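As a warm-up, study this chain.
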Amino acid sequence: MSGSFQQLQRSSYLAGGNASFIEDLYEQYLRDASLVPQEWRTYFKGLEDAQPRQAREVPHSQVREEFVRRARRNGGAAASAGGGPAMSPDAAEKQAAVLRLINAWRVRGHQAANLDPLDLRDASPIPDLDPGFHNLTETDMDAEFNTGSLFTADRMKLRDIITFLKNTYGRTVGSEFMHITDTREKRWIQERIERVQGRAELDGDQRRTTLERLSAAEGIEKYLHSKYVGQKRFSLEGSEALIPLLDELIQRSGAQGVKEMVMGMAHRGRLNVLINILGKSPADLFQEFEGNFNLENAGSGDVKYHLGYSSDIQTPGGALHLAMAFNPSHLEIVDPVVVGSARARMQRRHDRWGEEVLPVLIHGDAAFAGQGVVMETFQLSQARGFYTGGTVHVIVNNQIGFTTSNPLDSRSTLYCTEVAKMVQAPILHVNGDDPEAVLFVTQLALDFRQRFKKDVVIDVICYRRHGHNEADEPAATQPMMYGKIKKHPSVRKLYAQRLQEEGLIGNEDPDTITRDYRDALDNEEVVAPHILTGVRNDYAVDWGTYFQGNWDDPVDTNLSPQVLRELNETLQQLPDRFELNPRVSGIMESRRKMGAGALAMDWGFAETMAYAGLLREGYKVRLTGQDSGRGTFSHRHAVLHNANDGSTYVPLKNVTTEPEDFVVIDSLLSEEAVLGFEYGYATNDPRTMVIWEAQFGDFVNGAQVVIDQFITSGETKWGRLSGLTMYLPHGYEGQGPEHSSARLERFLQLCADNNIQVCVPTTPAQFFHMIRRQQLRSYRKPLIVMTPKSLLRHKLSTSALENLTEGRWHNVIDEIDDIKVKDVRKVIICSGKVYYDLLTERRNREIKDTAIVRVEQLYPFPENDLSALLRRRYGKAKTVVWCQEEPKNQGAWYSSQHHFRRCMKETQELHYAGRDASASPAVGYPKVHHEQQRKLVEDALTI
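Now compare it with the structure written out below.
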């Protein structure tokens, strides 16, 4: 035996009768090795190392037997060494019970904490927090015990240990962190909480500042309530502690090197935060309440409690840029947008670990528990390509849902925060009526995020003094709650009384602070502290240049033959001993031939060349989706895999000297959060072509809120530009209702005000020029692309290399066969894959009087281009047919036929050829599909 272990024996713990104690200690060691003394860790590790099985699998019986064997062998030495008598079995059991009690408080102490300002619920007993549950009695209270891993004295009386635990874990902070498996993180939290017993260490100036911030939070609400009676403002009253919380978060973040903070929150308390934190001018807010907007070129606008804002704030570490994201009423949908924005800012700063950029999300309790995008956003937090170094989540927990719901109806969990445990985020519940406790958990949460670069949650349990909005009467459905709220003093009043009782402030000080704040509002002064003006930010983006463009501005999207050759040579180079899968090797060989002009160009080659050209010209490319590295249809192969060892290689990363200029990520199985993330990224980086690709276009409906609330309407509501591109595989090939349609009709229905572009390219060259046009244009608009599936390998859907060096994007593509214009009696117009079905069948039938015209861009609709064909070139044609694969009530027919008609002569008649209207996007039976497809082609050619 080692000397240290012999010493441990002599100190009374190691004796044969103490086997129960040792078993308990071993259980703790299995759960968390750091909870037991070093000597015991060494001892238990020694037992494990002697076994052939995996570590921490030694049965308890073996521990007991080995312990008794060693104790008997060394018992005489222990007794004669003068170290005192060995611990009795009863004493050992008591010691083990104390350690179990300590662990119980760490695990479940939050359930006994005083977290609810209204004290609405009857406290349920927590059995394992009762000493009696562990067979500890009153006679044990004055006995001294080892405190184990508690961050306090090594030995204390039991009653003092219990007092310590109650003060640490049972006051107004409830800490949940024992679910974390990383021992370093868990022990760090324990130390931070236990060394100060869960209390903030604030000096007199800090406490007075806290009162001032509470007074400001209450002051703006009362001011608006009296000045704009009955108008919606979604008051923060009852949750005023949010303002000192955010103030502390900003100042402490800045002191730790954070330079940018991106914040997202819903409407409750938003006006308060804009005025008291971001420094929005009260005069501007009053104008919004009074409806005095400048309507010229204002778009549709949005309500005042959805608007974003940004400012620069002085902190101990210098200026911090704070940006509040614009947010619709879909509450949590802003979450991925904020973290995407944060990621873009990190990329600009080359801030790999989130040292300088911090995302902050402010949630409501019911929304946090109820909306799935919260879970999806948490799942992004540590994923490659979406990592932001952790988000600080703040829940303004009003204890009541959207309007009148009871928590029993709004969730199935004890707390609204359970979803955060999926990423092992620490959760800090705090009573919103204790501002100092709120500041303590804010400091703890930020420091945890900065130390471990992971998400953390602050759950501020408070209440809502008014109804859902200021015209609502909540007492009609929540009489008990609002009976208490009516009598309950505000947190500002409670804290002022506390400081007065402690002699920190005088009796008149609270009124003076309130009066000074109101006077500032009357004078329309900026009331947020530390606001800076004229700050130079080297990482800011000037979006002004992207508002000046025009849809019809010409742009050269060609690449010279020499550049194409050089790029292809770069992309063909592989690392030494990098062996490709035979199929992939064949694709790479084909691309080598395509680059030399010896083989017709396919879609994968054209797409890769488009990205390579942009990278060479100084742009960046970011492509994410559920199968984007390879491509769902095995066409892209942007990521190559070594057949020998599974290592990967991305040739496009070698086009520039900065590998991060090209990013391709196979994302998690999410549409809503990932698309929201990419939108947030795109709104903050116009120099990066940001692309989200659906695995199948049909799945985009899982992200419809992002499309409706941000992508298609963000510019007209908020003036926010975005060059986000969406690839949505679309085409009817008999694969059933969920693998056919990207819901083209939904996008066309949302088209107005030149808000988005909707394209359906039918050739690799078109795809190439479309990609380059999107980035080389002088403005930024979202691009929605119906991308191909079967066309990726269609023998007719190819392009020549010169189409990349001498071509351009065509909104409309005219007839390509040698058909005499004077003979044309009918023109079929179409988009997408159906063109090749029509072309093949027309050729088979040798029809010479029908021209087929492709509309490659459905919005903005190219009326001039199509009119030139229908009115002039084919002016003698009497019949115009729109042919589509989609059912009649879907696709482009209903949304675009007015465009078709405007392009036609009065003497021409418009017909429809396609599937009948259907509630389902496509049939599920291949035979039925093929018959429908045959019939719609037949109809188009014979009408």
